[in-house]
Amino acid sequence: MALNVELHTDDLELTGGILKVDIYHAADSPADLARLTLEDELAQGMGLQKDQRVEVWLGIEETERVFTGRIASVGTEILIKDFMVDMLKTKVTKALRDVDFHESAGLLFRECGHSEVVLPEDPSPIKPSVIFHGWSAYDEARKLARAFGYSFLPYFDADGKGHFHPADDIDECPVFERGNNIVNLLKTGNIVEVKTVCMPSLFHSMEVIIDHPQVKSDVVLVKSVRHISEGGSLRTIFTFEDVTAS
Fold first, then answer.
1. Is residue 43 within a helix (H) or strand (E), and if so which, with residue range?
2. CB distance 224 to 238 below 8 Å
3. Does residue 23 contact residue 57 with C-beta atoms inside 8 Å?
4. What is the pLDDT along the chain (246 residues), one digit of tens a residue?
5. Does residue 170 belong to any structural domain of this protein?
């Protein structure tokens, strides 16, 4: 069955003319990225603008939202970055007294225009002072987490909601095996690229298990791309470093 790809804005729902979609999650980029390739005539007539809020929806019989963000560039290829761009471009200068992590983190997101954010369930200690020195909200968030003894980072989900809390526990790591769900494995030095059936839940820094003649190990992803071709096939391509390679 054909895969349906839709682009939603506040004013329109585009349900045809999208030739290809790539959704990137990379460890070296705070903001995730979606790239859509459109038919030439469609790209010229849509009137999309930079920084416009858009959503990408995918599905077969029914579609679901898989990416929300702002347009970074417009043409026959549309580049969309998730709302992390708001945290990257917003500078925050504030001095707070007698605050916990939740109040401080909530303020950072509100300064970027995002009032809805998921924070840790457990309460945090009260700090006598928290000072934001005018760095980007993303860098201030990283600094804030360290100040409270946390190691997690802020991110935005597919619905555009902010998150700043520990990652949900995963009972079992996904397993990828030759002859089962690995379509292709390409190894160049220590860098390994795996093409597999679509796994929407794969993200950078996630641990997975590889069972393949070239690699048999638990690995940590550094990049994940969901690729939808012009023919409608859906694949996930992920990359990791094989630290066991000699």
1. helix 40-45
2. yes
3. no
4. 567 888 999 888 888 888 888 999 887 889 999 999 988 777 666 778 899 999 999 887 788 899 999 999 988 899 999 999 999 999 999 999 999 999 999 999 999 999 999 999 999 999 999 999 999 999 999 999 999 999 888 999 999 999 999 876 555 788 999 988 899 999 998 999 999 886 656 777 788 899 999 999 888 888 888 887 766 677 889 999 987 765
5. no
211 & 141 share domain: no
Note whether 59 and 19 are same-domain residues: yes
E strands, 31-148, are 33-38, 53-59, 63-73, 77-82, 91-99, 117-118, 127-136
Locate tokens 């020195």: which residue?
A: 133
Quote the domain boundaries for residue 12: 5-83
Tokens matching residue 198: 């679509």
Task: Look at the block and give the residue holding tokens 């990257």.
Answer: 88
If residue 188 lies in a helix (H) or strand (E), which one and from where to where?
Answer: strand 182-188
Q: What is the rounded CA–CA span in Å between residue 153 and residue 214? A: 33
Residue type, 148: F
| 35 neighbors 17 (Cβ within 8 angstroms) | no
- Residue the block writes with tokens 């638990």: 218
Question: Which of 163, 190, 224 corresponds to the end of one domain?
Answer: 163
Whether 18 is covered by a domain: the verdict is yes
pTM, rounded to two decimals: 0.84
**195 vs 52, 175, 177, 184, CA distance in Å?**
32, 13, 11, 5
